[in-house]
C-alpha cells in the first residue's frame, strides 16, 4: 500500500509540474554548434565561400567549447532531475535515497567544476577564455639583385687557361 501511494504521489506531482510549466517561454541557447549554420562550417571554409576570420582552427575550437559547455549544463540538469525523482520515489529505502542524493551532488559538483574552471581562467587572464590565432606582423622582402646568366663555355675555357697550374695545384694571382 505504501509503494502504491508513493508512486501515485510521484505521478500526480509530475503531472502538476508539467501543467504548471507549460506557459514558460523557451530559452534560446546562443552556443554555435560546430559545423551547423550558426557555427564554423568547415565545408564552406574549404570552398572559400565564407568569411576567412571564422575559417581558422581557433574559431572552430571556440564553437566546439561553447557547444560542449551547453551540452554539459543540460546533462547536469538532467542528472539533477533524475537524482531528485530517484530520491522522491525511494520512500523508506535508505540506499535508494542515498543514491538519489549522490546523483544530485555529483551533478552540482560537475557544474561547480565547469563554472570554476571558467572563473579561474578568466581571473588569471581573460584572453585565456577566448582562443585566437596569433597575428603576425607583415614584412617586406628586400629586392633581389639581378640574376646573371652562367658564363658561356668559351669564357670558362679562357678562365681556366689564364690560371697557371702545376700538377693538381693551381695558383690565382
Q: What can you see in these coordinates?
A:
The chain is mainly alpha-helical and 173 residues long. It starts with a helix and ends with a strand. The chain is rod-shaped and about 120 Å long. Helix 3 (57-89) runs antiparallel to helix 4. Strands 1-2 form a two-stranded antiparallel ribbon. It is built from 5 helices and 2 strands. Strand 1 (165-166) and strand 2 (169-170) form a beta hairpin. The protein has a domain at 28-129. It has helices at 2-20, 42-47, 57-89, 94-124, 153-162; strands at residues 165-166, 169-170.
Question: How would you describe this structure in keywords?
Answer:
173 residues; mainly alpha; two-stranded antiparallel sheet; rod-shaped
In short:
The chain has 173 residues and is mainly alpha-helical. Helix content is 57%, strand content 2%.
Helix content: 55-70%
Shape: rod-shaped
Task: Summarize the biggest pleated sheet.
Answer: 2 strands, antiparallel
- Count of helical segments? 5
Spans of at least 5 consecutive residues whose pLDDT stays below 50 are none
> If you average the pLDDT, what whole number results?
74
Structural class: mainly alpha
Distance N to C terminus: 119 Å
The radius of gyration over CA amounts to 36 Å
Strand arrangement across the biggest beta sheet? 1-2
How much beta, percentage-wise? under 5%
Number of strands: 2
How are helices and strands ordered from N to C?
Answer: HHHHHEE
Amino acid at each position: 500500500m505504501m509503494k502504491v501511494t508513493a508512486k501515485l504521489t510521484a505521478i500526480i506531482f509530475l503531472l502538476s509540474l508539467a501543467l504548471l510549466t507549460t506557459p514558460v517561454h523557451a530559452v534560446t541557447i546562443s552556443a554555435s554548434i560546430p559545423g551547423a549554420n550558426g557555427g564554423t562550417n568547415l565545408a564552406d571554409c574549404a570552398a572559400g565561400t565564407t568569411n576567412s576570420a571564422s575559417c581558422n582552427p581557433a574559431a572552430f575550437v571556440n564553437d566546439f567549447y561553447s557547444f560542449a559547455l551547453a551540452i554539459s549544463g543540460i546533462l547536469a540538469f538532467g542528472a539533477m532531475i533524475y537524482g531528485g525523482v530517484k530520491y522522491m520515489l525511494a520512500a523508506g529505502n535508505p540506499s535508494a535515497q542515498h543514491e538519489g542524493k549522490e546523483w544530485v551532488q555529483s551533478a552540482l559538483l560537475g557544474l561547480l567544476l565547469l563554472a570554476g574552471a571558467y572563473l579561474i581562467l578568466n581571473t588569471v587572464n581573460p584572453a585565456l577564455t577566448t582562443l585566437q590565432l596569433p597575428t603576425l606582423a607583415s614584412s617586406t622582402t628586400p629586392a633581389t639583385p639581378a640574376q646573371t646568366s652562367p658564363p658561356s663555355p668559351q669564357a670558362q675555357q679562357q678562365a681556366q687557361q689564364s690560371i697557371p697550374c702545376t700538377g693538381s695545384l693551381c695558383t690565382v694571382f
